[in-house]
Structure formats: structure tokens, C-alpha cells
Design brief:
heterodimer, A: mainly alpha, two-stranded antiparallel ribbon, 6 helices, about 70% helix, B: mainly alpha, 22 helices, about 0% strand
Chain lengths: ~160, ~500
Amino acid sequence: MKVGDFFMGLVLLGLSVGVFVYARTLPNPVRQPYGPGAFPSLIAVLLGIAALVLIWQAWRRGEGRFEIRLAPWARDPRALFRFLLVPAAVLFYIYFVRTLGFLPTTALIMLVLLLSLRVSSVTAVANALVIPLAVHTAFYVGLGVQLPWGLLAPIRW
Amino acid sequence: LIDAYFTALGMIFDPSVLVVILIAAVYGLFVGAIPGLSATMATALLVPVTFFMPPVPAVAAIITTAATAIYAGDIPGFLLRIPGTPASAAYVDEGYRMTQKGEPGLALGTVLLFSAFGGLFGTAFLMFAAPSLADFALSFGSVEFFWIMLLGLSAAVFIGAGTPLKAIIMLLFGLLFAFVGMNNPAAVPRFTMGSTDLLAGISLIPMIVGMFAVSEVLRYMVAGAGGLSGQTVRVGKVFSGVWTLAKRYPVQAIRGSVLGTGVGMLPGAGADIAAWLSYATSKRFSKEPRKFGTGHPEGLVEAGASNNSAVGSAWIPALVFGIPGDTITAIAIGVLYMKNMNPGPGIFIHSPENVYALFLVFILANLLLIPLGWLMIKLAANVLKMPRDILMPAILILSIMGSFAINNSLFDVGIMLAFGLFAFFMEENGFPLAPAILGVVLGAMLETRFINSMIMADGNLLGLVSRPIAAVLAGVTITLVVWSVVSALRSKVADVAPTDRP
């Protein structure tokens, strides 16, 4: 997604105002002239100035004011699908790894991603089995990271 | 001093450390040689693993990976004309022309040997300059450190970046990210939006992995499979002929190393700028400037030595002041903090053996580069054929794993995803990522120094410039900023055409 500098500047300006207002509400328990809100306020002011310059530059260039263009890839359904698969895979991991276990979850993710990249199905299945095992061995056995076993709990090793 | 070096030697020649260095070197060469995988990504993916190591091997792994991955970026650059890392973009065309002339081995061998030379040169300077600079910096107080950091950040934004305004915005974003949590002088929870997971701040490792690995995966998924297969390159002899070049261009090798070392020390100007400058210098002073761009090794000698010497000297501001010169040193500084080896002049007094151990790792990494790099060149034809369609999903799994492993926290996996999407989106709109990571790493310290300085100065802004060194640093910083802004405005008037890339 491509956002014109003008619109981007407006968003950043809004953000800087938000940060500034929020920073002003921070308590100052140590009763010093410069409490926890001081530095964030300063940064918010600088961000606001930078946003204004960005808006001004875009204005002078005469760019489309509220332009939000889709990047070429976003109009290609297959590329868009592959892009969305990445956040979907991560969210799937976050919500299902405890129940399914590390190996089944990552194997599933690998399989879907590999197939989306049009890897031949035999290669995809083989890698979806081997790579999670390798990562599991490196982190669980090698580094002692506790990984959820989930479905495979009965045969854990 | 000698004692500390002996202790350091003992630390390095521990078999486990040597094994870590060797593995890191192979890993760096491998990742760097795969087209589209950058040295930064190699380092970012390594950080979660270093979390589980003792301090010295952890930092050794980072240093070795960075040094070898930057060299290995030349391999796809010369053979396929795809620069593996930005640091080799300056002379990729020259090397590719040599490949077309049937001399890929000579091109890669030249850059390999002179990279190692430049790397050792930069390291020697680092070993000499860093301790003396640290001695000098011992007298610095909060105010001086505040200005030094501000100078470093301004340099990063105005020298290194293509569009300073967007770099500034990303830097401010980085500082904002650093505010999240209770990690501030008053320990007040800030910007946590009521989340207890954010009280300790945004974890650095998931942030780094998200910004530099997940965003790469996203970019690859969008671009689709690259058609690299079918290209086979015969590399031929690697080192024969390099010695002749060394005898013909000794001045170039040294000039490149000196310039690279100097540029590397500047915060924000790293190996890539050093390579561009040295390539240009080489052409200007060459007796045969017309041969440049046609497959002439002279520029390779100079620029190859230059970018690797910058890798070493970038650690001078990093170790003495905690100011990163580029993205990779920013990540490395994050690792130093993680391992309680907080950079600053103090580290040279409290644990000099650790610092010297780092120096020795640099030497070792550059020496290892020669045989391992040679092997990599020989294997290049196979490595270039590595199916990226399989690697990219595997990198996503590794990213998830690495972000999760450090705290056993699924929340951190979410952080990784958020920063991956953020980095992808911002980069697509022409915002550079490096300043953000500088801001994140320096944020907490910058704030502490600022608050301390203001309290000491009793709220009087003049207090920030009342000490002589502080005044000089302030002068340099303000001059740099004003000069950059003025020259930017001038060029705006000169050509109205937009300079941003589309």
C-alpha cells in the first residue's frame, strides 16, 4: 500500500498530537521539573514539526492530496494472497501452538507457505516435515527452550 | 594491558568459543551469499540464538557473522549482478563485468583478500584508537554524552540517509518505541495502553527480527519466486593473479583502508558509503580512469578494502559511546546491553578483557574469512541455486521461534509480526528502517542523559553548553543540522523536481 506523503504527514501529525496530549497526562511522582512526560513531549513536538514539513513538501509538489494507491503487487490476487498468508501464519501460530503443539503447527504453516510458492507437493511435504523437526531440535534440544508439545504430548521426547 | 590481552586470548581460545566463531563464519558466508538475504537479516536472525550464550561467544557470533556476510554479498553480486548487501552495491557492476570477461575467480579473489586486509586494518585502528578515546571520554558527564548521542543521531539522519526528513521521522518513531514501558527515570508506565505485557517495554529481539527478517519474507512473498535457476557459472582459479594486483595497487589498498576506517567511525555512515566513496576516489586518482566500469580490478581493490575496514572502525563509537554506526552495530549494541556488557568508557576499565576479546574476534574473523571465503567461492554455483522458495518459509519459522524463545512469550511473537508489517509498510513508502533501530537502542539512554542534564542545569537550557567539551559538541551538532537543512533547501530551490523515489 502506497500512501502519499501528504496523507502520511497528516497521520503523523495526528500521532504527534496524540503522543503530546498523552505525555502531558503522565504523573510526575518525583516532583522534579522534568518528569516522565518531558522527553516524550519533546519528541512529539519534533515529530509534529517533521510531519508539517512532509505535508508542506508534498503540497508544493502538488501530489494527490489523499492518495492511497495500491502497490502493483496488491492488485495481483496471488501476490496479495501470499502476502496475507504471512500474518495469517503468525496469528495461527499464536492461537494454536498451545493446543496443537509446535511441530504440527509449524509443519502446517510450512506446508501452506510452500504450496503457495508453488513448490512441488512432494518437496513441500518433505520440507514441511523436516524443517520444523530441525528447528525443534536446535531450540528444544540444543538451547533448552520449552516448546509446547500439544497433540504430540503422548510421544514427547 | 598485556595481562588483559592474555586473559582475552584465553577467553577466545576456549574450544566452545572457537566453534561458535567457526559456525558463525560459515553461517554468515552462507546467508550473505544467497541473493536477497542481507547481512542485516543474517545478524537479526542470529540474535535470539545469542540470547542463550555467554557474553563473549554471543558478541563473537555477531561480529563474525556480520564480517563474513558482508563479504559474501559480493558473490551473488559479481556472478549474477544482484548485490547481496548494500555495502557491495558500489562495485557490483565492475565485478560483474569481470565475470563476463571470464575472470569471476579473479574478481572474487581480489575482493576477498583485500576485504580481509581492510578488515585487519580497521581492527588495528580500533584496537589503538578505542582505548585512548575511552580514556578521554572518562571525563564526560551527562551533558557531554547527551550531545555525543545527539551528534551521532544527527549524523545518522543527515549523512547516511537518502531522504533526511523521512529518516528523522523513523528516528523519532524509534524513540517513541523506546518509551513504552516503565524503563524511564521515574519508572512510570508509559504508552502501555493498559497492557501488562508492555510494562517491561517492547522486547528488542522480536522487534529486530520483525523489522529485518519478517519484512524480508513479506517482500519475497509479494515479489514471487525469483527465476535464478538455470544460471551456472564456472568460477575458475581464485587467488592466482591477486598477488600481482597487490604489487600493482598497494597505494589503493591502503588508501581504501584509511578512508574506510575514517568513514566507518562516523555514526550513520557505514560500509556502504565507504565503498561508494572509495570507488569514486580510486577512479579519480587512477592512471587509467577510463577502464573503470569495464571490468578493471583497481576499484575493487580499493573499495573492497574500504567497506571491510569500515566494519571494524564502526565499533569505535559503538564501544566508547554506545552509538551505533549502522544497523548491524545497532543490533550488536542491543546484544551488548542484553549481556550486561554496557558500552561506554567504563567497559574499558571494568572489564577490559571483554573488550580485548572482541578485538581478537575481529582479527580471527578476518583471517578465517580467507580460507572459508575461498571455499564459498568454489561452492558458489551451488549456493546460488539454493531454493529461496523453501528458505523463506523456513526463515519465517525461525523468526517465530527466535521471538518466542527468549521469554517463552507468544505476545513477543505478536510484537514480531507487528514490527514486520510496520517495517514493510514504511519501507514501501520510502522510509528507511535503520534510523528507527538506532532510536530504539539509544532511546532510554538519551532520555536519561537529557533529564539528568536538565536537572543539573536547573532547567536552564544554557546549562547544556556550559562545559567546554559540551559546547564544542553542541556547536558541531548544530552546525551539521543547520548546514544539512540549508543545503537541502538550496537544492529544493534549484530543482523543483521531487527527489523521493516513487
